[in-house]
# Entry
Amino acid sequence: DIQLTQSPSFLSASVGDRVTITCRASQGISSYLAWYQQKPGKAPKLLIYAASTLQSGVPSRFSGSGSGTEFTLTISSLQPEDFATYYCQQLGTFGQGTKVEIK
Amino acid sequence: EVQLVESGGGLVQPGGSLRLSCAASGFTFSSYWMSWVRQAPGKGLEWVANIKQDGSEKYYVDSVKGRFTISRDNAKNSLYLQMNSLRAEDTAVYYCARVIADCSGGSCYSWAFDIWGQGTMVTVSS
# Structure
């Protein structure tokens, strides 16, 4: 089974910061990776699929890149509403999550 | 409005059963793979099961195989999860989700969950 490892697990940042989260796959998965945002008590929200395709309605400050075994989610300028937990996912496997908190 | 609404959660004793339902609206339900994803309290997301558009293919995480059954009724725009022999470790919020599936030649390469319900809580405890 494929394992997905996110880093860091926790990130403290300020409004306006550029933030990058990494997701590493235990074996090559081409570009078959999605990213989600989840706020406390809410359902996850799809941000990006196919590694770099922005889901409709998602702000352009979010971007994804990578292929094979290493992928990144970048928030170009962190906004107050972006403080949340982020997950990567491929088929039936999710990463363990990255919590982004206010510095 | 595209919407998924789960129901059927609650408190059940270990070894008991529960049936979750998910009502879909605002899209052509029969055109999509559908999934159940769960989240234990304070933990991350865990995919539970998938079902193909016509119900002909079903997939499960190993920990629920033989205990949970996913099904759908396209005439009623509804997804179900029958959960038997429940264990404490099944305690979680259960979400239904619409799947964007990239499949060909009998294999699926990618699932992305683009629409989620609000979730229903299942607590397994004596």
Observations:
- The interface with chain B takes residues 30, 32, 34, 36, 38, 43-46, 49-50, 55, 87, 89-97 of chain A (CB under 8 Å).
- The first strand of chain A starts at residue 4 and ends at 7.
